[in-house]
Structures are given as C-alpha cells and as structure tokens.
Design a protein that fits this description.
Radius of gyration: 24 Å
Distance between the termini: 78 Å
Largest sheet: 5 strands, antiparallel
Number of helices: 3
Shape: elongated
Structural class: alpha+beta
Helix content: 25-40%
Strand order of the largest sheet: 1-2-3-4-5
Strand content: 15-25%
Length: 135
C-alpha cells in the first residue's frame, strides 16, 4: 500500500514539472515580437513585382509568367493586408486576386478571372516581397 502512494506522488511531480515547462515555452520570444512589430512596410510596386514572377494559375494556360500586375492595399499596417491585385497573363481574361502578405514576406493569393469565374478559386504564392514602400 505504501508503494501506491509513492507512484501517485511521482506521477503528480512529473505532471507539475511538465506544466511548468509548457508554461515557460508559451512565453513570448522578445526578438520575434520585436521583428513583427518593426516590419518594414510593403508597397504596391514591390508586391506587383513579386506577382510578375508567378505562373498563370488557370488550367490549360500553360506556365506563362505574368505580364502585368497592379495592386492596392485594402487594409492598414506595415503589411497592408489584404491586397487587391489584378494580374494580366499572356491570354485574357485578367485575374483578380486577394493577396495576403505574411510576416516572413511570403504571399498567398486567391481569386478568379474577370468575367468568367471558375468553380474553384485560382491561387498564387511566392516569396518574398521586397522591403520598402513607395515615396
């Protein structure tokens, strides 16, 4: 009977130690928080330049690169999310995308062709938007 209490006490000690470690790991990483708070602003020109490197996401249009891209910020903050972009590929119609810039400056966008929507959303992704906003 004495050993049963010893096992229970040992399990409780291990549980308390695990809880302490888990709580410690949830504390904010001050360097990470600083980097997130001091993000360099994203400009429309920099985002459009990255979108020009994307391939046509429409089925049957091949892997042609974008020819034109125009973006404007629909939000605030350094990243400007969400962005509304119109991307022109080799063949019409142009594609309207809603693009999100992540903290690591990678992007993900989804949207549909102008005038002839697909059943599924088209997507683009890329890395990484150059730092700096337009003057």
């Amino acid at each position: 009977m004495r050993f049963a209490w010893l096992v229970v006490a040992l399990v409780l000690l291990v549980g308390l130690a695990g809880t302490a470690v888990a709580l410690h790991n949830r504390e904010a990483d001050s360097q990470f928080v600083s980097r997130q708070e001091n993000l360099a602003p994203v400009g429309a020109t920099q985002l459009a330049s990255l979108l020009l490197t994307t391939s046509d996401p429409r089925p049957g249009f091949g892997n042609a690169r974008a020819r034109t891209a125009r973006c404007h910020s629909a939000g605030g903050g350094a990243l400007g999310n969400p962005w509304a972009c119109v991307i022109g590929y080799r063949a019409l119609p142009r594609v309207r995308m809603r693009v999100t810039v992540h903290g690591d400056r990678s992007i993900f966008g989804s949207g549909q062709p102008e005038g002839s929507p697909h059943l599924n959303f088209l997507t683009v992704k890329g890395c990484c938007v150059a730092a700096g906003a337009e003057p």
